[in-house]
């Protein structure tokens, strides 16, 4: 993994020119980039999500927690437009979800399925490009370069020509993050990105997200409470219904007495569901 | 054997063998990575219904089988895209019904005594000039499709949910792969027959998969390996007067066993 300064340089390189985009002018941090209002959703009969409200500001680091089957993945899929939300219940940059193909990067859950597939790392990353203005055959030179720089950014540059199945779980997860970064998203959604990685690998992934968070909004589904304490600025607890907590101000306690803070946070989240 | 090459039916058999191997190598790779083997089996057996109908109504058998197979492919695409969880039951159903329709219509055809075995186990030595034209057209179409839409097909096969997010029409490419599979199955029936078609679409592909680190090279190796097996099988079939389909499949299966032994030994002595 690239060390601090290196990483920072790469990130700012990747996001060069973004300062001039409207998103970054308009009141900077105060604009809501995601607005979810009274969202209720069901696949078939059972209600999966009920009356969800959520407002996410630019450069927030939102952690989504909750029990298995609580609807976390479903909520991400609704934001992405993979599943269809009721009209106007979700606005992303003031538009309905499916309109934002390039502005949202997505790292799906269970990226360890299909590992026998004969595909190179670079080809996986290149899937992240959106398919307009493409050459007749294969990939454009810029697309390859861009994919390589995304791989560099997650420190996987030298694995570009390896078969995806030959990587470890943590390495594969970083490749999936590189794929999501390929379209230069302004929001990055990750669904349990560290569920099959060892502790060192987990820390590396979250350090990477922290670095990316200087430029883009991060929304991550996670079971790991220490992540929330160390990295997240807000927490959404989803179990059919949702409860939102701003934890950014709690962080001062954290440096003084980690233990205290953890207990307090758990209480805080627990209470709202009692 | 060399003077055998001067017979037109032998030349046709060799050309057909190569064309079918290219088609089944490429499409077999797509079938395997998309986990559609069972679907392809369903299409192969359903197409027997088309053969029966063609015999009964006196239309060209290739045409009857193609129409039926493509129809089955479209139906399967429609059902699997709508109700994934019902796929198995449904395919089992059309598999059996297709065969039953075929047998029924052959039974009802007065005085029909063409060797049915040739459709079940292949009749490569009876390849006509028209068959070759049809096969060539299909091979060209397949090469065209995988060349120009390689990245979409790769994306849909590897991670269809993500492909959808990137604006690739998953339904279209999924259906396209199934339709091309159906047509490949039909021409492969000519060579190995419908019972053995699945072996041709999987054994060379399995070996190629172990040798490849991309879908492109997997298709390439599959086509080459398939061609070798088919020509070798054909040679044996001609010399020992065995049904072509059976000899091709046995050559493939034995090669697979040798290949697996080789891999095992390699891993032991490493
Ligand atoms: N495609 C689907 N069709 C029907 N039900 C689904 C589908 N995906 C998820 N569900 C159901 O929705 C509920 C929430 O699932 P999910 O969003 O994956 O939860 P989480 O990610 O919090 O574990 C579960 O009960 C699950 O069975
Ligand atoms: Mg989930």
What report would you give on this structure?
By secondary structure, chain A is of the alpha/beta class. Chain A has two domains: 31-103 and 186-271, Rossmann fold, CATH 3.40.50; 111-184, no CATH class. Helix content of chain A is 35%, strand content 19%. In chain A, strand 8 (234-239) and strand 9 (241-246) form a beta hairpin. Chain B is mainly alpha-helical. Chain B has eleven helices and no strands. Chain B has one domain: ABC transporter involved in vitamin B12 uptake, BtuC (Orthogonal Bundle), CATH 1.10.3470. In chain B, helix 3 (61-82) packs across helix 9, helix 6 crosses helix 9 (170-211) and helix 7 packs across helix 9 (170-211). Classes of the chains: A alpha/beta (274), B mainly alpha (270). Chain A binds chain B through residues 80-82, 101, 106, 108, 114, 116-120, 123-124, 126-132, 134, 136-139, 161-163, 179, and chain B through 33, 147-148, 150-152, 154-155, 157-159, 161-168, 209, 212-215, 217-218. Bound molecules: adenosine-5'-diphosphate and magnesium ion. Residues 43, 48, 66, 68-74 of chain A line the site of adenosine-5'-diphosphate.
Task: List its salient traits.
heterodimer; A: 274 residues; alpha/beta; Rossmann fold; 2 domains; 3-stranded antiparallel β-sheet; 10 helices; 9 strands; 19% strand; B: 270 residues; mainly alpha; ABC transporter involved in vitamin B12 uptake, BtuC; binds adenosine-5'-diphosphate; binds magnesium ion
Helical coverage of chain B, percent range: over 70%
CATH homology superfamily name of the largest domain in chain A: P-loop containing nucleotide triphosphate hydrolases
H and E order of chain A: HHEEEHEEHHHEHEHEEHH
Number of helices of chain B: 11
The CATH C-level class name of the largest domain in chain A: Alpha Beta
Element-by-element helix/strand order of chain B: HHHHHHHHHHH
User: What are the low-pLDDT stretches of chain B, counting only 5+ consecutive residues below 50?
Assistant: none
Rg of chain B = 19 Å
């Amino acid at each position: 993994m690239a060390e601090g300064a290196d990483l920072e340089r790469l990130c700012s390189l990747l996001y060069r020119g973004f300062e001039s985009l409207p998103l970054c002018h308009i009141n900077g941090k105060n604009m809501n980039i995601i607005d979810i209002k009274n969202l209720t959703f069901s696949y078939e009969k059972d209600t999966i999500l009920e009356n969800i409200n959520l407002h996410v500001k630019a450069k927030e680091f939102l952690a989504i927690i909750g029990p298995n089957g609580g609807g976390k993945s479903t909520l991400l899929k609704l934001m992405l437009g993979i599943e269809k939300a009721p009209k106007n219940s979700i606005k992303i940059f003031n538009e309905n979800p499916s309109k934002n193909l390039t502005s949202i990067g997505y790292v799906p859950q269970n990226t360890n399925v299909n590992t026998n597939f004969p595909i190179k790392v670079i080809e996986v990353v290149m899937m992240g490009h959106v398919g307009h203005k493409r050459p007749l055959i294969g990939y454009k030179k810029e697309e390859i370069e861009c994919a390589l720089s995304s791989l560099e950014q997650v420190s996987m540059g030298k694995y570009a020509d390896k078969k995806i199945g030959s990587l470890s779980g943590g390495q594969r997860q970083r490749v999936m993050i590189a794929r999501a970064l390929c379209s230069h998203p302004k929001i990055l959604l990750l669904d349990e990105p560290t569920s099959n990685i060892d502790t060192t690998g987990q820390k590396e992934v979250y350090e990477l997200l922290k670095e990316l968070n200087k430029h883009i909004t991060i929304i991550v589904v996670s079971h790991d409470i220490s992540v929330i304490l160390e990295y997240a600025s807000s927490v959404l607890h989803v179990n059919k219904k949702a409860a939102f907590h701003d934890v950014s101000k709690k962080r001062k306690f954290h440096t003084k007495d980690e233990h205290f803070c953890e207990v307090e946070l758990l209480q805080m989240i627990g209470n709202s569901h009692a | 054997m060399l003077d055998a090459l001067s017979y037109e039916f032998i030349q046709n058999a060799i050309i057909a063998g190569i064309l079918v191997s290219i088609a089944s190598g490429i499409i077999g790779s797509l079938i395997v990575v998309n986990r559609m083997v069972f679907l392809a089996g369903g299409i192969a057996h359903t197409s027997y219904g088309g053969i029966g109908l063609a015999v009964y109504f006196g239309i060209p058998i290739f045409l009857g089988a193609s129409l039926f197979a493509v129809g089955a492919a479209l139906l399967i695409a429609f059902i699997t895209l709508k109700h994934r969880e019902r796929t198995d039951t449904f395919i089992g159903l059309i598999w059996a019904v297709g065969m039953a329709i075929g047998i029924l219509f052959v039974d009802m055809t007065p005085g029909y005594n063409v060797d049915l075995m040739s459709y079940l186990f292949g009749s490569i030595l009876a390849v006509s000039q028209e068959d070759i034209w049809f096969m060539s057209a299909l091979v060209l179409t397949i090469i065209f499709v995988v060349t120009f839409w390689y990245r979409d097909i790769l994306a849909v096969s590897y991670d269809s949910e993500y492909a959808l997010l990137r604006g690739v029409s998953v339904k279209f490419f999924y259906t396209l792969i199934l339709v091309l599979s159906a047509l490949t199955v039909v021409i492969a029936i000519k060579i190995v027959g419908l019972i053995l078609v699945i072996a041709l679409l999987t054994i060379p592909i399995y070996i190629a998969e172990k040798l490849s680190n991309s879908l492109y090279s997997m298709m390439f190796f599959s086509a080459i390996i398939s061609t070798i097996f088919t020509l070798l099988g054909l040679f044996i079939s001609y010399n020992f007067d065995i049904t072509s389909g059976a000899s091709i499949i046995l050559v493939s299966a034995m090669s697979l066993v040798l290949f697996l032994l080789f891999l095992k030994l390699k891993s032991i002595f490493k």
